[in-house]
């Protein structure tokens, strides 16, 4: 892993696969996951958060006139 950035709170690494790993610099040096990891990577502008697009809304089909 290659070290990308180090701050007082955490260290960011980049793996060979291109993914990122974040390790806390506090006692124990635990690896961060989930929302904490995403927040740090977005703040450092290493990744962008993608929001899912809403499905397209279809117009209601017109009713056919009743045959008599």
Description of the structure:
- By secondary structure, the chain is an alpha+beta fold.
- It has a domain at 2-43.
- Helices cover 15% and strands 25% of the residues.
- The chain has one helix and four strands; from the N terminus they run E-E-E-E-H.
- Strands 1-2-3-4 form a four-stranded antiparallel sheet.
- A hairpin with a 5-residue loop joins strand 2 (10-14) and strand 3 (20-24).
- The model has no long low-confidence stretch (mean pLDDT 86).
Q: Determine the N-to-C terminus distance.
A: 76 Å
Uncertain segments of ≥5 residues (pLDDT<50)?
none
Strand order of the largest sheet: 1-2-3-4
Report the helical percentage: 10-25%
* Number of E strands: 4
> What is the H-and-E element order?
EEEEH
The residue-averaged pLDDT reads 86
The main sheet comes to:
4 strands, antiparallel
The value of Rg in angstroms is: 23 Å
**Helix/strand structural class:** alpha+beta
Query: What form results from the Cα inertia axes?
Result: rod-shaped
Work out the strand percent: 25-35%
Q: How many distinct helices?
A: 1
Give a topology summary:
Layout lengths: L1 E5 L3 E5 L5 E5 L6 E2 L1 H10 L25
Antiparallel strand pairs: 1-2, 2-3, 3-4
């Amino acid at each position: 892993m290659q070290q990308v950035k180090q701050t007082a709170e955490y260290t960011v690494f980049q793996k060979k696969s291109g993914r990122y790993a974040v390790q806390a610099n506090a006692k124990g040096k635990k690896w961060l996951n989930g929302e904490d990891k995403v927040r740090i990577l977005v703040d450092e502008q290493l990744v962008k958060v993608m929001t899912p697009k809403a499905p397209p809304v279809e117009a209601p089909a017109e009713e056919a006139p009743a045959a008599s």
